[in-house]
Amino acid sequence: ASPNLLWKANAIGWNSLHHVAATGWQDEAWLLEKAVETDKKDLFISERTHNGGHSCISLFFRRHVDPLPWHDTQVKEAAAFLRDCLRRTTVNQRLLELCRSILSGSEVDQVQLQYESIESNEDDDAVSRLTEFSRQLNLWLRSASRTASQESNESFSLLHALADVGGCPAQVAEFAVALFPEQAATRDENGNLPLHLLCYSEPSSDENDCQALLHASLSSYPEAAHCTNRCGRLPLNIALSSGKGGAFTKTLMYAEPRVLMGRDMFTGLPSFVLAAAAPTLNNHLHALCTSNVGSLWHFLPPHAKQERLQQAQSEVDAVQLNTIYEILQFMPDAVQFGLM
Description:
By secondary structure, the chain is an all-alpha fold. It has helices at 3-7, 16-23, 28-37, 42-45, 56-64, 73-90, 93-103, 108-116, 121-144, 158-164, 170-179, 194-200, 207-220, 235-241, 246-255, 271-277, 282-290, 302-330, 334-339.
């Protein structure tokens, strides 16, 4: 296939990556490799203009964990089974240890001994399914994440990669943190914790995914909320300057309120000014525009698209104003400290 045809969108805005993420394909590894070879990483995360504002990674999670209404019964049943496996394993330390051993490439004898300790067929099935899902997830994250290495297993961090792509469904976030709790407190080569990368990630229509990983990360390593990265930036200030607001920034405010009493080391601005100056990202607006109409967006008349765009802009402005209000309500002295 011509490289250009692989990434060319159809009438409803889907390219090959969107289709494979949403419906699956036996040779998806080949397509992901081609995407990396031709430097198409941005297609995985930034292109939120398709299928109701979902990115390719979001469509992958929808197919496996939280199917969309148009997914068939087989996909929905498989997702229900995976969600049950995630819940069962996340609270079972023995199963977590077995999954960790398999995914980290432990010795066969060690893995066999752990398998023999499994007490039920249901647990055996759960481990098998989660191992398969984790390998698929790693394959997509290595292709999509800007922080993931394509070659080295040792340098790959599941939490960093999930954060970099903007989060994941709650069941996956809880499983990932339970599987590798140490990663929540581990810095990458640029000095970022997973929380820093999540705050840097592009705002999307999948706010629940972003919020889910935020809660899971903070529950594992609460101190992350007041840790600076190599640039001296705190998570809340990164999130505000990246255009985030609402429940996400409110959670960070409660986790580390002292951030509001100082200035961002990178910009020199106080938190409420960062919120006011936050950019409105075109992809985020388009995601909001298409969130209710899905693929029909491409067939709307121009005046209807313009109305939806204005509505989305109003929603973004309202969230921005509400974030500024919440900062000042939470810490009234923030203005005084900001002007000093």
